[in-house]
Amino acid sequence: MKILMVCLGNICRSPLAEGIMRHLAENTGLDWTIDSAGTANYHVGDPPDRRSVKVAQKHGIDISHLRGRQFNAADFEQFDIIFVMDVNNYRDVIGKAKSAKDKDKVALMMPDQSPVPDPWYDDALFEPVYEMLYNACSERLERLNA
């Protein structure tokens, strides 16, 4: 299974989701490929936001080695499923789809279709966002591995 996590800048939410899903997959003995990207090119080559790194480390997950990259149409060929963090990310990713098959690979990260809030402007959101993503990744992994 190859999974791509996508948010706006690829420094807060999607690297957290990548780290969490990779951690859960490895602990379950799954040899999955997990990556992340941003719809914008603001932070290409940059490490994750220090607050994302900190909250991940608090939970035993190291994402400090990750680097931001921009989502591109070739990702549809490389990944089985693409999880996006909110409706704007969904629109941006779907906008690069070349086929119905590509569009079918895209889903909101949260199983209940709610958005994952961007914690960039509010330090207090990083822990709740981590918890949301952990729960969503756990549920998604369970369903995908069934």
From TrEMBL:
Keywords: Hydrolase, Protein phosphatase. SUPFAM superfamilies: Phosphotyrosine protein phosphatases I (SSF52788). Its EC number is 3.1.3.48. The active site is at residues 7, 13, 118. It comes from the Bacteria. Residues 1-143 form the Phosphotyrosine protein phosphatase I domain. It holds the Pfam family LMWPc. One of its GO terms (molecular function) is protein tyrosine phosphatase activity. CDD domains: LMWPTP. It is an enzyme of class 3 (hydrolase). Belongs to the low molecular weight phosphotyrosine protein phosphatase family. This is protein-tyrosine-phosphatase. It comes from Chitinophaga caeni. The lineage of its organism: Bacteria, Pseudomonadati, Bacteroidota, Chitinophagia, Chitinophagales.
